[in-house]
Amino acid sequence: MKQNLILGALFGVLSLPFASHAEPPMELSIVTPTRMAQSLDKTIADTTVLDEQDIRDSGAPDVPTLLQTLAGVEVVQSGGLGKVSSTFMRGTNSDHVLVLLDGVRINSATAGTTALEHIMLDSIERIEVVRGNVSSLYGSEAIGGVIQIFTKRGRGTPAFNASAGLGSHGTQRLAAGFSGSVDANSFSMNVGKVKTDGVSAINTGIVPTVNPDKDGYDNTTYNAQVQHSIGADYHLSAALFRTHGNSQYDNAYGSATDRNNTLATIEKLSLAGDGQFTAMWHSKLSLVRGSDDSQDYLNDVESSRFKTINNQQVWQNELQIADAQRINLAVEHLVQSIDSDTLFTQTQRNVISWLGGYVGEYDAQQVQFNLRQDRYSDFGVANTGLLGYGWSFADNWRTTASVSNAFKAPTFNDMYYPFQNYGGGFTYVGNPDLKPERSQNKEIGLHYTTIGQRVDAVYFDNRISDLIACNTACSTVVNINQARINGQELSYVGEFGDIHLMADATWQNPRDTATGQTLQKRAKQFGNFSASHSFGAWNAGAELKYSGPRQDVDFNGNAVTLPGYQLLNLTARYKIDKNLNLSARVDNLFNRDYSEVYGYNTLGRTLFVGLNYQQ
C-alpha cells in the first residue's frame, strides 16, 4: 500500500488543469521505432526521446544516470560512477536490451550486455528509447527494447563549446567541442575527460575482507564526424567514437590488499553513403565496426581479457509507394568475432539478415508491419515479426496496440566457453546445441496530446521461453527457464509557461513462470517526478525518484531482499550571459543509505558544480 501511495503521489501533477498558454511541443522526427523518419506522435511502439536540451538540463554525468528517469527502465550499478551497470527494460534481463550507437552494435558477444557505464553525455546529442519487442527491426537482444544513442552532429555556423566542473569525491570533468557546417560540408569534434576518486565499491561492513580503499574511475572520450553533400540528394559521411575507462573495483572473494581494476574501451567506426535516387527511392549503404574491449588486472597484472568486434554491412532502402505509405527493405551482414586469453572453442560467427517493413497512415489510422530473418552460422535461423495499429479516435486522443516476437542469440560464453572453476570441484563448459531465447509480447496503449502536454499509458504482457540457465549439476547451460512479465507504464510531460513537469510510474510483475519468484534486481514498482522553473536568468529544478523493494542474492548465493528507497535531487542553472552559464546538481539531498546491488555502496549525497560555454 505504501508503494502505491508513493507512486500515486508522483502523479498528482496529472490532476492539474492543462495550461492554455503553454508552448506547443516540438516536432520530433525519430527513426528507431521503424528505421524510417517518423514524428513521435505517429509512432506505435512505446517511445521516449531525450534531446540535447533534456540532457543539458538533467545535469546527469553519464547515460545510466539519465536512463533511470524513464518509465519502464531500471539501472543498477555496482559502486558508483564508472562501475558495472545493468539495465532492465520492462523487467527483462539486462542482456535483453539492445544498445546502438548511431545504429552500430557495441555490445560484448561474450557477456551479452553493453557497458553503458563508460558512455558519458558530453558527446551525446539525442537518445531514443523504444520499449518492447523490436527484434523484427534489429535482430538479437531486442526483447525488452532498444536504446539508440546519437552522437553530436555538425550544423549551422561553426561554433565552439566547452565545460568544466568539480564535485564530491574528487570528481573533475572537462569537455570541449567544435562543430558546424561550411558550404557542402559539416563536421563535429568533441573530447571529454572525467575523473573521480569514488568510494569503496563493496561495503566493508558486509564484507570486511575486501580492500577498504576508494575505487576511482578515469574516462576519456573522443567523438568526430564529417559529412560531405553532393548536391541536395547525396551524402557521404564518416564517424569515429572512442571511450576509454579505467575503473577500480572490489572483489568480494579477494583479500584486503588486492587492487583490482578494469580497462574498458568501446569504439565505433562508420562509413556511409546515401542518396535520393528517384522521387520514391532513398537508399543507404553503411560499413560499420563496433567493439568492446575489456581487460581485468589484479595488482597491476592482467588477469583476463575479452574483446568483441562487430563488423557489419547494411544496405537499407526506403520506398515511398503512396502518400503516407512507405516500405523499408534492408539486408545486413554481421561478423561477430572475439579475442580473449580464454581459449574459446569457436571465436567467430556470421549472421546474414533481411528485413521488410511497412508504415502507412489512413486518415485517423496508422499501421506498422515488420518481418525479419536472421540466419546464424552456428545455431540456425530466427524469424521475427511485428504487427502494430494506431487509431486517433478523437481530438487529442489516440490508442495503439501491437503483437510481436523477439529473440536473443546465445553468447559465446553460453556456447563455446571451455571451462570455469567454481571452487566446488566441478567445471562448466559451453553448450553448442543451445537455441536462442524467445519472447512474445502484446501491448496496448492510450495517449493524450494537446498543446504543451502529453500523457501515455501502456499495458504490456511479455512471455519469454527457452531462457538459458545452468543445468541441475551446473556443468553446462541449457534452454530451461521461462518468465512472464506484465505491467503498466504511465508517463507525463507538460509545459506550464516557465514551468516544466515530467512524471512516470511503472507497475510490473517480472517472475519465473515455474516458481513464481520475482526476477532478481527488479522492483515491482518504481517512478520519477521532476519539476523545473525558469525565472529571469535562473532555472531551478527538483527530482524525486522512488524504487520499491527488489530481490537479490548475497555473496554466498542466499536470497535477500533489498529495501525500497526514495531520493530527492536538486538542479540549478544561472545564465551569466548569452554564451556562459553556471550549473549545479545535488544528488541524494537527504543522504539516504540505500543499495542497488547487494553489498555494494552508493555515493550518498553528492554536489557537482560546472561552468558551461556555448558559442
Relevant terms:
615 residues; mainly beta; globular; Maltoporin, Chain A
Question: Could you characterize what this model shows?
Answer:
The protein is mainly β and 615 residues long. It has a single domain, classed as TonB-dependent receptor, beta-barrel domain (Maltoporin, Chain A, Beta Barrel). Helix content is 5%, strand content 58%. The protein has five helices and 33 strands. It has a 22-stranded antiparallel barrel. Strands 3-8-9-6-7 form a five-stranded mixed sheet. A hairpin with a 6-residue loop joins strand 24 and strand 25. The longest helix has 9 residues, at 2-10. The radius of gyration is 24 Å and the shape is globular. The termini are far apart.
Short description:
By secondary structure, this protein is mainly beta. Helix content is 5%, strand content 58%.
Distance between the termini: 51 Å
Estimated radius of gyration: 24 Å
The number of strands is 33
Structural class given helices, strands, pairing?
A: mainly beta
**What is the CATH architecture term?**
Beta Barrel
Proportion of residues in extended strands: over 45%
Uncertain segments: 9-26, 422-426
CATH class: Mainly Beta
Mean pLDDT equals 93
Q: Under CATH, the topology is which?
A: Maltoporin, Chain A
What share of the residues lie within helices? under 10%
Number of domains: 1
Count of alpha/pi helices: 5
Could you give a short account of the major beta sheet? Answer: 22 strands, antiparallel, barrel
What global shape is seen?
Answer: globular
CATH homologous superfamily assignment: TonB-dependent receptor, beta-barrel domain
